[in-house]
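Standup notes, protein team

Yesterday: finished cleaning the Tieghemiomyces parasiticus set.
Today: COX assembly mitochondrial protein structure.
Blockers: none.

Input for COX assembly mitochondrial protein:
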Amino acid sequence: MHPQLSEHRAPQCAELIRKLQQCHNENIWTKYFGECNEAKVKLTECLRAERVERTQKNLQEAREKRAKLEQAWKEFDEN
């Protein structure tokens, strides 16, 4: 299961989003009989990679922010 698909939220997966939507729109039955599964799996992998990258970036930013805060408290305690 993936979140609501929009190209602006996951620009690196935009082509895969379009392919999945095209597959679903070509014939109503294709999505029910698994003909779009390959496109869906590739999209899910792309979205997961984007999420992992975003999570790592946020964690790094949080650690940097925490280090600055601890440094500020250390300087405050010294004075």
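Follow-up from PR in the comments: The chain has one domain: 12-78.
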